[in-house]
Amino acid sequence: MERLVFLLIAVPLLGGILQAVMPGARARHGVIWFTCGLTILLAHAVLVMTLGEAPIRLNAGLALFERQGLLPAEIALIALIGFYGIRYRNPLAVVLAGLQALLLIGQQQAGHPEPLEQPLLLDGLAVMMVMIIGVVGGGIGIHAIGYMQEHREHHPEGPDRRASFFFVVFLFLSAMFGLVLADSLPLLLLFWEITTLCSFLLIGFERTPEAMKNAFKALNLNLIGGFGIGLAILHQSINHGTPTLSSIASGAAPAALLAAALIAIAGLAKSAQFPFSSWLLGAMVAPTPVSALLHSSTMVKAGVYVIIRCAPVFHLTPAGFILSLIGAITFLLTSTIAATQSNAKRVLAYSTIANLGLIVTCAGIGSHQAVWAAMLLIIFHAVAKALLFLSVGTVEHKLGSRDIEDMNGLIVCNPRLALAMLIGAAGMFLAPFGMLISKWAAIEALIQANPILPIIIAFGSAPTLFFWTKWMGKLLACRPQACPAIRVCSLSEQAALGLLAALTIGICAIFPMVSSHLIEPYLALHFSGEILISRGNLITMFIMLALIGLLPFSLVYRSRAERMVTPYLCGANLGDTGHFTGSADSVQPVYLKNYYLHSLLDEATLFRLGLIASGTLMLVMFAAVGW
Amino acid sequence: MSMFKRSPWMVHYDGASCNGCDIEVLACLTPRYDVERFGVINTGNPKHADVLLITGYINEQSQPVVRQIYQQMPDPKVVIAIGICATSGGIFSECYNTKGGVDSTIPVDVYVPGCAARPESIIDGVVKGLAVLETKRAAWRIERKKRNRVFRLPFFKPKASPP
Amino acid sequence: MSGWLSAILYILLAPVAGGLIAGIDRKLTARMQRRIGPPIFQPFYDLFKLIDKENVIVNLYQNLYLTGFLVFNIVAGTLFFAGGDLLLVIFALALSGIFLVLGAASATSPYSHIGAERELIQMMACEPMLLIAAMGLYLLPHSFQVRDILAVDKPLFLYLPGILFGLLYILTIKLRKSPFDLSTSHHAHQEIVKGITTEFSGPALAVVELAHWYETILILGMIYLFFAWNPWVAVPATIGLYLAEILVDNTNARLTWRWTVTSSWLIAAVAGAGNLIVLFYFLKAGF
Lengths: 627, 163, 287
Description:
The complex is a heterotrimer.
Chain A: H1 2-21, H2 25-50, E1 56-58, H3 62-68, H4 70-87, H5 91-109, E2 120-122, H6 124-154, H7 162-181, H8 185-203, H9 209-239, H10 245-249, H11 253-270, H12 278-282, H13 288-297, H14 299-314, H15 318-338, H16 344-365, H17 368-399, H18 410-413, H19 415-429, H20 434-449, H21 452-476, H22 491-526, H23 535-550, E3 557-558, E4 562-564, E5 579-581, E6 587-589, H24 603-626
Antiparallel strand pairs in A: 1-2, 5-6
Helix pairs in contact in A: 1-2, 1-7, 2-6, 4-5, 4-8, 5-9, 6-7, 6-13, 6-17, 6-22, 7-8, 8-9, 9-11, 11-14, 11-24, 13-17, 14-16, 14-17, 15-16, 15-21, 15-24, 16-17, 16-21, 17-19, 17-20, 17-22, 19-21, 19-22, 20-21
Chain B: E1 9-14, H1 20-27, E2 41-42, E3 51-55, E4 58-59, H2 62-72, E5 78-82, H3 83-88, E6 98-100, E7 110-112, H4 119-146, E8 150-151
Parallel strand pairs in B: 1-2, 1-3, 3-5, 5-7
Antiparallel strand pairs in B: 4-6
Chain C: H1 2-32, H2 42-52, E1 55-57, H3 62-81, H4 86-106, H5 110-139, H6 146-150, H7 156-159, H8 161-174, H9 203-225, H10 231-251, H11 257-284
């Protein structure tokens, strides 16, 4: 077990180094394929080995590292951030690096307690995160091979930095594994800051002024969030000795609550909740596999992951309720904003923030069922959103646009790609699919705690319905204009999309097992209660899933009563679907555009509203901790 | 038993006229004449309609429109020409742009003369049209039987229909 | 067992009852306009005629989605009458609505496209209030199961007046009645031809009609829940409220989508949410 976990952390890192030193492109791609495949296998191995077992504390070589290497690593990290801040003239980053250094000194002064012999904790939640990072991360890595190839063809200028790109991606995967396995807070903070740095490097991959600006925004906001964990370590070491996540989660209310609230601030920043949301939108300048990996399925999940770890402390506290409220407001406002966007990546970004908000809401309540819903949300969202991001990235290369309006009729031009996107979208909001199961559980869990939260969730889900359906409608429209010439997808992209699409559907089918083998055992340790989804409801869901699956087969038989004609254009069609006679016998093309409700909703206003509301609530949360 | 007699839905198109007959067509829908008594609905959409009411004559511009509307109507369907212009071109028959009555463009089943045609005669024309609709229904059922069943795979590229 | 029985009865009888209600609706509407109006069985005549007609299509896929629309409408209703989970009913209903929208969006006609967008906006306007209503009904029996809500021996409408009002407001949208018949309307012309149903003809349109009838019965069932403690009150109350909907239909002009969304969200937020919060804390305080 020790070795397996060590391999899990080491393999991506080694693969990253190995591919960087490989001479030819072919050898490099081979290494990447191999590393991603191995990572997926290792994650599965961890799952199989731990099924049915009690939580295990592990060393995996990291105790030694924590004792000897932690301080140098942190100093190196701070120096690197300071270096980038100076090089790109970003004073705020330098100041934050300085503060980080001060905090480090403070921690040393407070007397660094004796590091744990076994700083890692492998329980149900950690295994779940390992599976997500391994499988989704591996899939995204594979997709990135083909994607970056084509990306290079679209941007031939400048040096080829693909090797360093993949190195950072693999470094990130290693750090992510470390993050979700670490129980010791100083170790967790290190991995946390590494992921922040990786995110910074990958957002700034293009090195354009816009990319650098957004990269620094992400870096600075996450550094500010990181202080939360730093302060929590300080607070724990002054009071108790061992700064670990598990001791906070099982700690007594006032002291543990303060530490949990501090960690929650870091979580909010990482998960791009209001008031930290703006960095995630800027992060969309990064290549799409990065958006899929860091900014939707794994890194931002680290934020909600730590909040879920602290959830037992938040149960039935005013601070926990206010944390939920921040999540709920984020959910409502960002899903409303998403309805006004036509840029596919921005829609996905806003929807990601919204869903993370829902998870935060559940975690803040901290009851058995709420956390159950939150954990399921993490799984479903990671898979479906990664699929969506990757297919948007591929479409962007094929069509030269990431605008949803330009995806009109994709089902005709590129059915497989459109199908992948449709499965992703369905997984995000449709009834028998994943996200809705958890949303349903979330509403049930929330109404038991408080009526205000589920009301906000109810208002927030309505725009979700709106923007996903209109997107699906665009994809499914049988386009009036001819298709543009579309290049074939590369093998790696097809493989990744196929894997994730299969997962999106597969997890819906096996989620009761995921729940009973992975989630329930974890919950049983920390919460009391039981899950309320009855057998009858499950059967209904499966019937619905089967009905949807059967639906396409009704296409096989065509009724004899059918006759194909042109759409109704007041009889002014020019004999085809796409044109009609305008005034003075002019030929007018048919152009259909979706509604974006701009006369009702304004992105900037809603965003500002979110900042003010959540900023205030955050202050209130700390007041409530004291109270 | 056929339901066509009990539920004739109509679409009304004005080729080119003085609008006298159009007013009379609309008058049929008013409480005074209330054709909904007979299940008539003015759908305004050829794809829902069984009866095409055309007022006015056909000219260069309206000819393709009338053709398309007729083509977009599902079988069985009946065309009723309302008013003397629709019947023969009326006082416009000598005009430079006239194509003639509706039958210059599409097959007409019932002619309702008059300038303007009175609502009573329009209703009478529709009732006559319903008898035609019955015979056409029989023909449509035979035609439908003749068509081949088509089995095809999902997500096969759709073909555009010939105009 | 009685749940299954009523579910089967729903599948078999809802089209009959729904069609009759539609017929009575048309007759009453005609009488309100001082017309004689069509026979009560007119909707059935229309349906059988449509089934008999040619199916004119724009592309090969559009009717696929209509099958989904009908099937999930029936699933939602069956689940409701079998005493199932109210939230799942609402989600299944939303799913069926989405299928209709996708069918219309697939047809690439401007009229059906605008109809589809408006339908979506209407769904967006309804969704919060529907969920809040489900939560309100949850509070007394502490269960989302319809059979548990039916078993509550209290007049729910007295506990949930705000929610009932809000629900009736958005049910006007669900029933496609003025002032909210934005996406399509049953009678007379409108500015977007037939809106969402423009491109569906013959048997396909018959499927849409049939699904509407199923939906009507489901909606009436939802209203019934609020009075369920005494059937002698519930049946007249449901009928009376439906008649009120017809009256509203005939006395109101169509609103814009902006009004539809803002007004229904406002009512959901004030009447619905207010009622829910007050009731929650009253129950918590032990009233």
